[in-house]
Specification:
Layout (H helix, E strand, L loop, with lengths): L8 E7 L15 E2 L2 E2 H12 L4 E5 L3 H7 L6 E4 L7 H12 L6 E6 L7 H9 L7 E6 L2 E9 L3 H7 L7 H6 L5 E4 L20
Parallel strand pairs: 1-4, 1-6, 4-5, 7-9
Antiparallel strand pairs: 2-3, 6-8, 7-8
Length: 200
């Protein structure tokens, strides 16, 4: 009998930000539907079909571990989180290397308007380790995004500051499969005090 194969696509949740424009409150610990936002975001990835989830923590990582139920997620601490999203993306992709994952489905902790339906659509567009897929909202590229493993080294080499994979994707615009999600999700970010009104 063969050993059960690892699922080809792993969820990668970037949840390291310090919430600079929220008075230094880490976004992972904001409350949404009675739970820390990081816990809610992991639940979305799981409901969409990601059996394996890696979560990148940074700001107040110890408090996040203590307050959020993150079950059997792989928790990755990014000591360089203050440098921006690029460092978290690098840390997350590095944590997936050697796990058997052939793609990473990357989502952001501060986008609770993007639920399991949208994530599942992006996940379903996976073909192989060369896949590059992005959710789109009225034709405009957004999150989540799916990076086949063949792209990880290139993304890690160009992910700096808060730009994440933007430069890498811009050069490969024609190769990105867009999956329209505007009918099932709202891609707002929780960045400022005013945005807190989106939380329930």
């Amino acid at each position: 009998m063969t050993e059960k194969q690892a699922p080809p696509v792993a969820g990668l949740l970037l949840a390291a930000g310090g919430g600079r424009r929220l008075g230094g409150r880490p976004k992972a610990l904001l409350r949404h539907r009675g739970r820390p936002l990081v816990e809610y975001a992991v639940g979305v990835l799981r409901a969409a079909g990601c059996a394996r989830v890696h979560v990148v923590l940074g700001a107040q990582a110890a408090a996040v571990r203590e307050q959020a139920e993150l079950g059997d997620c792989v928790l990755v601490e990014n000591p360089d989180w203050a440098e921006g999203m690029g460092s978290s993306l690098r840390a997350g992709l590095k944590s997936l290397t050697g796990t058997g994952a052939r793609a990473a489905l990357v989502s952001l902790v501060d986008q609770p308007g993007i639920g399991p339906e949208a994530v599942a659509r992006v996940l379903a567009a996976y073909e192989d380790e060369r896949s590059l897929v992005s959710a789109a909202y009225d034709g405009v590229r957004g999150h989540p995004v799916l990076f086949g493993a063949a792209h990880w080294a290139g993304i890690a080499a160009t992910a700096t500051g808060d730009r994440g994979a933007r430069a890498y994707l811009k050069e490969r615009e024609a190769a990105i499969g867009l999956v329209e999600c505007g009918d099932v999700a709202r891609p707002y970010d929780i960045d400022t005090e005013a945005d807190l009104s989106h939380l329930e």
